[in-house]
Design brief:
- The protein has 206 residues and is α/β, with parallel strands linked by helices.
- It has one domain (3-203): 3-Layer(aba) Sandwich (Rossmann fold), CATH 3.40.50.880.
- Helix content is 30%, strand content 30%.
- The protein is built from seven helices and 13 strands.
- Strand 5 and strand 6 form a beta hairpin.
- The radius of gyration is 16 Å and the shape is globular.
Length: 206
């Protein structure tokens, strides 16, 4: 199985590839359309603003390509941090911007009520009530977060994990072949590696 890590100028691609290598999965960092089409799995990481992320994808001609590969052709996909946010209907960083629109919802500013700092930075505990062994083993484990905006999902059925930060924030999403997580599994030590491995094993070609 070859994993295409999308290169679009929004950071942390090398650290993701390093973890994939440790797990024994070959990957390429690329924005080449043909390489993305040939890949068995697409991974969209990223840090930074929603607007800049969408602008970069558009400049590289990747919006329609990724939508066709993931939504139409049902190629397995994982979005991490900004990569999760960009699959929303829209974002608001720093203004209203259309997203990829793969999972309904908007990405909005975190507004804590009790003086919690923004960004939400550091280790925090994820929770899930999804009745699926795939997610249950990760309930109450700690993962590494850094974000100032959060995904406000329209449909609760798309939410697989959440984190409490002066209220529940979406930490994970899944819709068919589309997986996404707000935290950084590549920075979350053993727990992050186990989660990545489990997602990839679900789609690994024999």
């Amino acid at each position: 199985m070859v994993i295409a890590i999308v290169k679009y100028g929004m950071g942390n691609v090398a650290s993701v590839q390093k973890v994939l290598k440790k797990l024994g999965y070959p990957s390429i960092i690329t924005n080449d359309h043909d390489e993305i089409k040939k890949a068995d799995f697409i991974l969209l990481p990223g840090v930074g603003s929603f607007k800049k992320g969408m602008e970069n994808l558009n400049e590289l001609g990747l919006i329609d390509l990724l939508t066709n590969e993931v939504v139409v052709n049902k190629k397995p996909f994982l979005g991490i941090c900004l990569g999760m946010q960009l699959i929303a209907t829209y974002g608001t960083e720093p203004e209203h911007i259309e997203g990829l629109g793969w999972i309904e919802g908007g990405v909005i500013k975190i507004i804590p009520k009790k003086g919690h700092r923004v960004p939400h930075l550091g280790w925090n505990t994820i929770q899930t009530d999804v009745l699926d062994e795939f997610y249950s083993e990760f309930n109450n484990l700690d993962y590494y977060f850094i974000h100032s905006y959060h995904f406000n999902a329209t449909n609760s059925k798309d939410v697989t994990m959440w984190v409490n930060y002066d209220g529940e924030l979406v930490a994970g999403l899944q819709k068919d072949n589309i997986y996404a997580m707000q935290f950084h599994p590549e920075k979350s030590q053993d727990g992050g590696m186990i989660l990545l491995k489990k997602i990839l094993e679900r789609y690994a070609k024999v």
